[in-house]
Design goal:
Length: about 130
């Protein structure tokens, strides 16, 4: 998995952990009461933090998200920092990719559709007319 994909996949977990713990997410020990998303995010942050040479930009991005967890720009800045770290350390990117839950999609019932990304038309209706 490439660094951009891993960064996009791990940042929601990191954001959840930062929203829950603020900047203390880096030093906080594992919280058994934390939900799975926050716990995974915390583990990801601590692995990213272990790269001492990357801490400056990461610390600043974490502080921005801690101050405004719902701010799309702060989350984007965090994603850029995570992507930068992962581009510099392919082994860490692979390790973090392994931590992520596997994606699965289930469709059931007549005409049900399960799709991760769709860039076109999906029609399951009888006699549907599709115009472009």
């Amino acid at each position: 998995m490439d660094a951009l994909t891993v960064a996009n996949d791990v940042v929601p977990y990191v954001t959840a952990a930062v929203a829950a713990y603020g900047t203390a997410v880096v030093t906080r020990s594992a919280d058994t009461a934390a939900d799975a998303t926050v716990s995974l995010g915390q583990r990801i942050v601590q692995r990213l933090w272990s790269r001492e040479e990357s801490r400056g930009g990461l610390e600043e991005a974490i502080e921005e998200v801690a101050d405004a967890p719902q701010d799309d720009d702060a989350q984007a800045a965090l994603r850029v920092q995570v992507r930068r770290i992962l581009r510099q350390d392919a082994e860490l990117a692979a390790e973090l990719a392994q931590l992520l839950p596997t994606r699965s999609f289930t469709a059931s019932g007549a005409g049900a559709v399960a799709v991760e990304t769709n860039n076109g038309v999906i029609s399951t209706g009888d006699g549907a007319t599709i115009q472009r």
